[in-house]
Amino acid sequence: MSQAAPFPAPGDKSASEEGSVFAPRFDAEGLIPVVATSAKTGEVLMFAYMNAEALARTIETGEAHYWSRSRGRLWRKGEDSGNTQRVVEMRTDCDQDAIWLKVEGAGAEAACHTGRKTCFYRAIPTGTPSGGVALRFIDAERQFDPESVYRHSSAAKGTLKSSK
Amino acid sequence: MSQAAPFPAPGDKSASEEGSVFAPRFDAEGLIPVVATSAKTGEVLMFAYMNAEALARTIETGEAHYWSRSRGRLWRKGEDSGNTQRVVEMRTDCDQDAIWLKVEGAGAEAACHTGRKTCFYRAIPTGTPSGGVALRFIDAERQFDPESVYRHSSAAKGTLKSSK
Fold it and tell me: B59 in helix, strand or coil?
């Protein structure tokens, strides 16, 4: 998909890279990848996708909206858990096919559906053979109990694969 | 693609989220998305993809390797520009389908093929209508001249769409 209202179609390489018109490039499924970092700590909180509607709503409201691939619908971050994300800064990259959000989370600022602050709570050791890598838990303390938080929400109805 | 040597096939939801076995999930094209941030400043430098080989080499060498979608080949970051990336920390997310690299760049630490430190050098204003958004340049100072750096490299032979 090269165009998706309300955004203009992407221009040539020079326009994409050096221009000031926001003309995002969506992938074949109409999605654009998004990295959310904590405005407070700089930590990467989560990785997700937006479709054109989620992107437009995020720009218009300053509240992070994503496209849930597992649930197949627009997803206002925190609609079930209360862990909404206010956008402090929003950027796009050189070829306008990725988005970076600096966000301020509500409450416990737990971005991950497992109850943790970040989805990236396990480290991959480097300088070792890549077969049979053992992950190391880091920043893995739960801020909320996902069982109780999602019990009465749509996310608990068996359709939630992950926070994405 | 659910399995790619030398990595084991992904397990169930519980194994993916709470286990310590690294079993990355590649997409239909055999790729996994990667966010690289500066270990020094916390800034998001670039967004790219790895295939299984790039992921294995990154783990084994501690040097960032990606899959270049535009060139259709393995890409050791900095092989043309000299802006290599040493991995300070590497993490995966809850469902093991994304990678976060904290890196230390060589030289000018310019991660973007346009010569800038970061690929994310333009901000998208929020709280405004999403049609006709004007980007604002930020952190956009060039650290090197891409014309001269890539002139004699494979990247200059008309095959480089972007740094990805």
Answer: helix
How far apart, in whole angstroms, are the C-alpha atoms of residue B150 and residue B164? 14
CA distances from B63 to A127, A145, B115 (A): 9, 37, 20
Name the residue of chain A whose CA is nearest to B17's CA. A114
- Which residues of chain B fall below pLDDT 50? 1-2, 155-164
The shortest CB-CB distance from A59 to any of B19, B133, B136 is to: B133
Query: What per-residue string of b and e applies to B93-118 under the rule 16 or more CB within 10 Å gives b?
Result: bbbbbbbbbbbebbeebbbbbbbbbb
pTM above 0.80, yes or no: yes
What ipTM does this complex have? 0.90
Residue A3 pLDDT: 53
Chain B's closest residue to A54, CA to CA, is: B130
Q: Does A81 contact chain B (CB < 8 Å)? A: no
Q: How far is A69 from chain B (nearest CA, A)?
A: 13
Helix (H, G, I), strand (E, B) or coil at B154: helix
Whole-number average pLDDT of chain A: 90
- The residue type of B92 is T
Beta strand B73-76 with B65-68 is antiparallel
**Beta strands at A73-76 and A85-92: parallel, antiparallel or unpaired:** unpaired
